[in-house]
């Protein structure tokens, strides 16, 4: 190359400055810094991807919980209906027990008492 710099060409100026001031230590320092920066960016992207996945899972969980919450009043209504039906059945069983006890009492009583009660 020519010793006289060609100041009209930007590339020539840049090449001369780089050759003059760039040492192996600065190159390796720049490579190390660039490696760290790339690692940081990749790690941040990975963290963002995991965050998006966890947010999507959270949204699905919230939707499931809302469906379950919507079903709770229906369950309460059905339980109330079942409780009233069970109470009705229990009342009917008690009524039938009393009727059976009355019938058994009449059946076990002497025959002259039975005739009077039947009338």
User: Which shape, going by the Cα principal axes?
Assistant: rod-shaped
- Give the helix proportion (percent range): over 70%
Distance between the amino and carboxyl termini: 141 Å
Multimerization status: single chain
Distinct helical segment count: 3
Question: Would you count the extended β strands for me?
Answer: 0
Determine the structural class based on helices, strands and strand pairing: mainly alpha
Q: Which band does the percent of strand residues land in?
A: under 5%
Order of helices and strands: HHH
Mind telling me the C-alpha Rg? 47 Å
Uncertain runs are: none
Mean pLDDT, all residues = 85
Largest sheet: none
How many structural domains are formed by the residues?
A: 1
């Amino acid at each position: 190359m020519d010793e006289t710099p060609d100041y009209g060409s930007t590339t020539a100026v840049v090449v001369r400055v780089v050759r003059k001031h760039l040492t192996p230590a600065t190159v390796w320092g720049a490579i190390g810094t660039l490696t760290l920066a790339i690692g940081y960016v990749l790690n941040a992207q990975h963290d963002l991807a995991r965050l998006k996945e966890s947010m999507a899972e959270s949204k699905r969980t919230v939707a499931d919980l809302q469906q379950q919450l919507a079903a709770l009043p229906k369950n309460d209504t059905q339980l109330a209906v079942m409780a009233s039906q069970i109470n009705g059945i229990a009342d009917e069983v008690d009524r039938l027990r009393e009727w059976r006890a009355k019938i058994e009492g009449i059946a076990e009583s002497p025959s002259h008492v039975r005739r009077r009660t039947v009338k």
